[in-house]
Amino acid sequence: MARPTIYTEKLGNDICKRIADGDSLLKISKDNEMPARSTIHEWILNNKAFSDKYDKAVNVRTDNMADALNEIADNTKGEVQRDRLRVDTRKWYLSKIMPKKYGEKLDM
Fold first, then answer.
1. Distance between CA 11 and CA 43 in Å, rounded?
2. What is the value of pTM for the model shown?
3. What is the 3-state secondary structure (H, E, C) of the chain?
4. Is a pLDDT exceeding 70 seen at residue 107?
5. How far apart are the first and last CA of the chain?
C-alpha cells in the first residue's frame, strides 16, 4: 500500500492525536500507513487549518512531557543517574522548543 500524500481531515486528526500523545514526526512517518515526514512538513507549511491543529497538538505534547518530569523525578525505585538524564534531557528539550513557557526566566 502506498503512503498517503493527499491531506484529509481524518488523516490530519490522526497525526495530531499521535503528536499530542507523545509520538514524534519521525515515529509517525515510520508507520507505512502514514505519510512521509516531508509530506507532513508540506501540509504544515501549506494548510493553515492543519498547521494550527498541529501547533496545538505540539503544545499538548510538551505539557504532557512537563507533567511527566515530576513522575520521573519522584520515582524512588529507578536508577538515579538514568532518571537524572531523562529529566535533564526533557527539561532541555522543553526549554528549546517552548522557550517562553519552559525556558529560563532572566531578570534584567
1. 11
2. 0.82
3. CCCCCCCCHHHHHHHHHHHHCCCCHHHHHCCCCCCCHHHHHHHHHHCHHHHHHHHHHHHHHHHHHHHHHHHHHHCCCCCHHHHHHHHHHHHHHHHHHCHHHHCCCCCC
4. no
5. 57
